[in-house]
Amino acid sequence: MIYLSWRQVDWQGDLAIRSTAIVSQAAIRRAVADADPSLTLWSVYTMDEVLDDVVAEPRLNTLLLSMFGLVALALAAIGLYGVMASAVREQTREIGVRMALGATPSRVRADVLRRALLVCLGGAVVGIGLALAASRVIASLLFEVSPTDPLALIGACVLLLTVAAIAAYVPAYHASRVDPARALQAD
To answer: Which residues are CB-neighbours of 106 under 8 A, at least 6 positions away?
Structure first.
């Protein structure tokens, strides 16, 4: 590092001013003009404006990826709801027989939810395995988190299983309200 006086050299560059107060561009221009009227300022930016330009693209990428993730989560929930509703509809006769033999609505609801969550738990295990296998590839896309971070992986699994439980609850609720006499007459 060397000291080079800017008054002795034809210099163009950046000048940073540190201040504890919020300073406007006009105040900076006046202060520089008071110090040396021959200096010309081409553009004056606050550090927040400079940093906003630097982080604008990563911020947009994060927003877009978050939105795509939410859409994927919603589509997964809708798909799970559709599959569970179809499975419950196909098992209406079986559920009616079970209820006619004394199964309580809460037991029927628990069985339907258990089946849905077992499938989702299997998907979560496979997903964690694939995420760990692909960790080297996705490492460059992550910011301040490791691709094998247990908190992030467990958090994602808990979120997905919660969404799956919510999506499976509606068909399970409808299954628990099946009228045994009507279900047996359906065929």
So the answer is: 176
| Distance separating alpha carbons of residues 92 and 90, to the nearest angstrom | 6
Return the pLDDT at 100.
85
Q: Which residues contact 173 (CB under 8 A, 6 or more apart)?
A: 109
What are the tokens at 118? Answer: 């077992």
Tell me the C-alpha to C-alpha distance, in Å, between residue 140 and each of 132, 136, 144, 145.
14, 8, 10, 10
Beta carbons within 10 angstroms of residue 92's beta carbon: 18
The pTM of this model reads 0.62
- Rounded distance, CA 4 to CA 86, Å? 78
The neighbour count for residue 52, using CB atoms within 10 Å, is 12
Candidates 127, 110, 116, 106; CA nearest to 81 is 116
